Amino acid sequence: MKKNKKTHVMSGVLIVLFVGIFMIISGRFLYIQATGEIAGVSLENWSEEKRTASYTLDAERGKVYDRNGMTLAYDRPTYRIQAIVGESHTQNEEEPLHVVNEEETAEKLAPLLDADESYLLDQMEEGVQEDRFQVEFGSAGKELSQNTKEKIEELELPGIKFTEEPIRYYPNGMFASQIIGFAQKEENTITGVTGIENEMNQLLSGKAGSISYERDQYNAKLLNPNEVIKEPEDGGDVYLTIDQKIQTLLEDVMTQMDEAYNPERMTATVMDPKTGEILAMSNRPSYNPNNPSDVENWYNDAIATPFEPGSTMKIFTWSAAIEQGVYNGDEWFESGSYKISDRVVPVRDHNGGEGWGSITYDEGFARSSNVAAAKLLWEKIGTEEYLEYWDAFGFDEKTGIDLPGEQAGQLVYNYPRDKISTAFGQASTVTPIQQMKAASAIANDGKMVKPYVISKTVDPSSGKVIDEKSPEAAGEPISKETSEQMKDLLGSVVSSEDGTGAEYKLDDYSVAGKTGTAQIYENGKLLTGHGNNMYSFLGMAPKEDPELMMYVSVKQPDIKVTETGSEPVSFIFKNVMQNGLHYLDIEPDKEASGQIDTVQLPEMTGRETSKVQNELKKKGVNVSVIGSGDTIKKASAAEGDELLQGDRILLITDQPEMPDITGWSLRDVMQLADLTALEVEAIGNGYVVSQSIEKGKPLKKNDNLEVEFEQPALDAGGEAESNGSSE
């Protein structure tokens, strides 16, 4: 057959085309083989990257401690529950690794997860229908405690697994919450939101690490995985100046007064006036940082809420007059009302402008005369000179306390009435912490100190101190002589029969302080009516050499017609100061009104349990023996310590067992936790009503103890005295 010429041509073209394509492809393969690159990308690096698994190694967030090493905030392990519903996970039917019976599983999990049984069942059945490997149970299956996890594991339900994940935990609940603040998870990282958690977030967070290795297609490590590990750097620890015992005492009495009087606001701060260390600080409303939802008040009012302070500002007006050399305490003036001109609204004393007739300026201070304060500023000190003292006492600026959100007050000083009103605590505003900083000059021989709450920061891995704070001078607005005279004047407010502060007397310590009653404006209108004021007290003790200084304010308490606003304020002040001074071992400077029986503790550790118990009971001590062992291994107090009769002491035997802690205070529970290395989860406030570890169960280190507290009803009038005088 004769071949077609056209066919020959087309065949030749196709051959050339295929040969060309083959050469190009072969050349490309040879090029790739020789260079190991495609489009500038190294195939070796690309393949290594594809088979390399990388994971983040989270750093542990640093802890927050009180001044004595009591843990206030730490990362606590919690657990997320998963139900494996994929049957393929089970290799041996006799030992199933997936949920076999959804109905039974839902029924048994529901009470432990506090979830609806039908919801759990729906989640598992939906997972089976959609051929999913595992399912979770939303918020009900997250942040489970160790105790809950163990109870679920005891059920031995097939297919139920747990994943550990840390959360930020605050073992004391509402304790100092507006100082400590809180942290929460944001994109798998715990981040500080408020308080110290926010202020020191960078230090507390540390630096995350990582791990990477090469794997095969089944996700198993290669024999030579080229593993690279970058260890995480855990966050630094923060030690506060807060004292857990004084703070707990403050929280307890604040809660009692909150429930008894239902005030709009309360704030209280305890400070060492010689150093500026804040030993306790609390506000109401407050919140539990473990559950920061529906928070009524985010602000730390002690540092962030300026207000007209009322008569506590007279402390600094009298100080200015004395320092200026224009004060004569024996000089007489006419009390009641004071008018500087026909165009200026007169100043009236707090008893409706009646006054007390002709009195001395010293008596005017004890009685808290507005007229005396106005005359001192207008006639003695001078308005411009008074401004210099306002600045010298630091009222023109923030204190610089190491907490976020501090605000400075505002000086209102444009018109004559504003100026004389500022002298007795109206018109201009300040914060409680500004007043405490200024008052430290009176307690500290004329020298002001800067308040602070962070004592030191520590590297947890080495134990070395990263940074440590020391007292910082903040000026010297008055002389030592002026401070001594002011302490005497402040003492007269509490001790003299004319003083407005008789309710603030302590049994065995002299007190120097000043009461305050401030007006409240809403929508530009002055509130009237019984109780519609801000009641406050700024006091220090012992008077001659103050070791503690405290400011308390209560806004709009629900008081009876027969009560004064000072009753909730004095209840807080007296309880915290009296017990705080005793706790700090401060020598009383006056005879107690009633004899306080104390017990000096004998040697206890290493001795026979029954003998120590009987000896202490005979002395009147409330003894709680922890365990059934024959020998005392630890005690909550040491040989030679002094306790009041009726105080509780914990004795830990060589076989510690869980006691019945019903009725115990948070302080007692935390002592038990310290001595036995328990992890405590506290719910509520007040006294123990339930415990997760049964009485008699042997205690092991790091056991998790969940404790529920409730506040008992309180007769607030029990300890509050009344003198019938108000300001």
TrEMBL record:
Biological or metabolic pathway of the protein: Cell wall biogenesis; peptidoglycan biosynthesis
EC number: 3.4.16.4
GO cellular-component term (any): plasma membrane
Recorded family membership: Belongs to the transpeptidase family.
Gene Ontology molecular function: penicillin binding; serine-type D-Ala-D-Ala carboxypeptidase activity
Biological classification of the source: Bacteria, Bacillati, Bacillota, Bacilli, Bacillales
A GO BP annotation: peptidoglycan biosynthetic process
UniProt keyword Membrane present: yes
Occurrences of domain PASTA (ranges): 652-711
Protein name according to UniProt: serine-type D-Ala-D-Ala carboxypeptidase
Organism name: Lentibacillus salicampi
Major location category of this protein: membrane
Transmembrane parts of this sequence: 12-31
Amino acid composition bias (Basic and acidic residues), ranges on this chain: 695-704
Chain positions covered by the region annotation Disordered: 461-481, 695-727
Cited InterPro entries: Beta-lactam/transpept, Beta-lactam/transpept-like, PASTA_dom, PBP_dimer, PBP_dimer_sf, PCN-bd_Tpept
The protein's enzyme class: hydrolase
Reaction(s) catalysed (UniProt annotation): Preferential cleavage: (Ac)2-L-Lys-D-Ala-|-D-Ala. Also transpeptidation of peptidyl-alanyl moieties that are N-acyl substituents of D-alanine
PANTHER family with a match to the protein in the record: PENICILLIN-BINDING PROTEIN 2B, PEPTIDOGLYCAN D,D-TRANSPEPTIDASE
Domain of life: Bacteria
Keyword vocabulary terms for this entry: Membrane, Transmembrane, Transmembrane helix
Localization: Membrane
